[in-house]
């Protein structure tokens, strides 16, 4: 009808309407292809098929908009009559009415089912209502003999189609170039990862969009001294939490590294409060005191002693003592013996435990640790070797 009537405004509106159809078909076709399972040749799947389709639509829209604007520009200098003017006006009016009803329907259904995407589509259809009204005004001006007004509206519609085409093209090109999504997503990924117990920091967080989904990778810094098994569990926990938060995240690769502490906070069960000359207590739960030492680059920078309230208990002394060390946020414990309960409390809180084979003073215990002469305690030791000898 737009071609037969000779109305450039109606032609522009028709092309704008077809752009919606083309983009919907492109999205549908892209999603259809994107559902194909990854293959050896396409290990990341076919998700970018949708992006290529969108780029094709963009090129069509840009080419069409240029033709519309050229045609409108020529109309500025021509005298012409719109054929079938009555039908052209009816078509323009019906277009506006249909888009209005469609917008209301999409909005209502979207609110009923809680679909933000459908609500957004309803808002987009309202924009089509406004453009259809503009087309109707253009055709009406042409019928009244104001061809310049009709040509101007046609030119404006051509510019609008051009803007849409360039917008689609920009999004498609950015996706194909693996542009990073919004910084907010990166910030949220960082916060989620660093909320996992054992993660000391994150860096090099990268995201890229591929069609309707995202792929990501990140480096997490874990506490020193963790076993490979424990590090693997923590990295899986990070991955699970991030994928649960971002439903459109297809894959996130978590690279694990160790965070090097500048300061280490350690705890040693002791018999008396004599500062660095205090002697190690071989009985963890029954130790009268605990010494808390801050060590930086092998040097002691602070020391404070706290009484072990659990020593006065009749049972679960070790559990109470372990909970005290957790509250004090220690990184390392030096002990001569450790029951199964406190061993697991400390281990679950990623506190490293080193075995002291004999009772020594705090100063000597730290020297042995700094020189890597102490072994890690890999299982509970209920009785110390000196107790066995007795």
Describe the structure.
There is one protein chain. The protein has helices at about 1-5, 10-35, 50-75, 85-115, 115-145, 145-175, 185-195, 230-245, 315-325, 340-350, 360-370, 385-390; strands at about 200-210, 215-220, 250-260, 265-270, 290-295, 300-305, 330-335, 350-355, 375. It is α/β, with parallel strands linked by helices. It folds into 3 domains: about 1-175, Cation efflux protein transmembrane domain (Alpha-lytic protease prodomain-like), CATH 1.20.1510; about 185-260, Cation efflux protein, cytoplasmic domain (Alpha-Beta Plaits), CATH 3.30.70; about 265-390, 2-Layer Sandwich (Nucleotidyltransferase, domain 5), CATH 3.30.420. The strands form 2 sheets. A 6-stranded mixed beta sheet has the order 6-5-4-7-8-9, with helices on both faces. α2 (about 10-35) runs parallel beside α6.
Order of SSEs: HHHHHHHEEHEEEEHEHEHEH
Mean pLDDT: 76
The CATH superfamily label of the largest domain reads Cation efflux protein transmembrane domain
Number of helices: 12
CATH architecture of the largest domain: Up-down Bundle
Largest sheet, strands/sense/barrel = 6 strands, mixed
Q: From the 3D structure, determine the CATH topology of the largest domain.
A: Alpha-lytic protease prodomain-like
Categorize the overall geometry: rod-shaped
Distance between the termini: 107 Å
β-sheet strand percentage:
15-25%
Structural class given helices, strands, pairing? alpha/beta
